[in-house]
Known about the structure:
Blueprint: E1 11-14, H1 19-28, E2 33-36, E3 54-57, H2 65-68, E4 76-79, H3 89-95, E5 98-100, H4 107-122, H5 125-133, E6 152-156, H6 160-171, E7 175-179, H7 185-189, E8 193-194, H8 197-203, E9 206-209, H9 223-228, E10 233-237, H10 246-254, E11 258-263, H11 269-273, H12 284-292, E12 298-300, H13 309-329
Parallel strand pairs: 1-2, 1-3, 3-4, 4-5, 6-7, 6-9, 7-8, 9-10, 10-11, 11-12
Helix pairs in contact: 4-6, 10-12
Amino acid sequence: xxxxxxxxxxxxxxxxxxxxxxxxxxxxxxxxxxxxxxxxxxxxxxxxxxxxxxxxxxxxxxxxxxxxxxxxxxxxxxxxxxxxxxxxxxxxxxxxxxxxxxxxxxxxxxxxxxxxxxxxxxxxxxxxxxxxxxxxxxxxxxxxxxxxxxxxxxxxxxxxxxxxxxxxxxxxxxxxxxxxxxxxxxxxxxxxxxxxxxxxxxxxxxxxxxxxxxxxxxxxxxxxxxxxxxxxxxxxxxxxxxxxxxxxxxxxxxxxxxxxxxxxxxxxxxxxxxxxxxxxxxxxxxxxxxxxxxxxxxxxxxxxxxxxxxxxxxxxxxxxxxxxxxxxxxxxxxxxxx
Length: 338
């Protein structure tokens, strides 16, 4: 494709792409040279793709300075995610490499998954299911659940996903509190109360995390903050793994301080999700996640909260829209990060 903006035949490389997505992108980008890798970038010889003009990646493709410096004609990185913490943004700025993301492919999907984790924990579905599999259909005290309308939930981060989670919980009769550096006026009109982080942590029966990852949110929930939570509190994390300190979470669940945890994201998750343990790569945090997954009051899902038909279609269409805008105008519009 001879492109007005780039002035070259455009080469687009997709990494970590699902097999089911390949035909869509081929059909939607017919005039460009498009190359697909189902593997993540750590397992790709960058020399084979170093002449790419556009690189489309996913959250498990860690693009640090060392990798990015090997690309000699890279103009755009588009990540098929909202988060961009896997990309060295500062280096991209230095090199003049544009970066785009998909900011709102389906915030409802992630909010709904957060609710699913919460309901499974409050009604002890994992424990009940394990018992019925053992042909134990008894109704005993350990299976008593919690009523949502008797619980206070603290939503940390009220962007698009956190706001949906807050609305859902409010409609289910929960007492909803929120914390964010920027308050959402719509939520306030619905009766959702914004309070400081320390107060939210102390009064909430459930804490649900919906903040982007950055240096400021690294281990936002740590040992100190968990110690200030109510005994038996539940933590939900569908934001980013490193927002929640794995060691602190592990100790609090093992000693009974916390009543449960539902996590879709966790530190060193790539070791388990990408099967890196098969190559001998392991960490103490990954091992602790495996141990926590054996507990009846812990539910762990593999960074899959976004994964619905609607969300996947929105991501596909948004990626193509972003690429076409960039090729025609050199702009990124609503997808622009830098």
